Amino acid sequence: MGKAKTKQFAVMKRMINLKDPRLKDKDRSKGKSKKKLDPSQLKEKEVTKHPSCMFFQYNTQLGPPYHILVDTNFINFSIKAKLDVVQSMMDCLYAKCIPCITDCVMAELEKLGLKFRVALRIAKDPRFERLPCSHKGTYADDCLVQRVTQHKCYIMATVDRDLKRRVRKIPGVPIMYISNHRYNIERMPDDYGAPRF
Per the confidence metrics, is the pTM higher than 0.85? Predict the structure, then answer.
């Protein structure tokens, strides 16, 4: 019996050199010509645009009545902690709160099935404001982050650590979360009377 041929791994395919004389002129590599910079020319620099509602790190668009973007797991954890969503929000912020729920969050709740039908019923409450989504798919995290980045008038309500981490990178967006069987808020300006614990 002869030796079985073994396949060689990590062998690169041989390529013709771009400066080979057999190549035609159009296929040949052209040497990079360095442009000499004119020292008298003004230098252009990209500067990131900041929203007009931000005064240093203070968001002027926030104010009662508060619009609170609610995430899927926030409703589920509120049910586990036996908290009424709207009433607990008002107890936390000492002002009128309008919970907002996007179409993709509703779709996520519907996908979760019968186990989370109570959460779905709470989300269909008429006190909740429905926000339409124009994107494809039902992944809510990207939609919520995009909405909060565009419009700084929302407070983000979530228990998800990854989503919290993403929202913390956006300046001027407070985060509402659940701890010790009550709602707490972080990154809220002191003027609005949010409790400090």
Answer: no
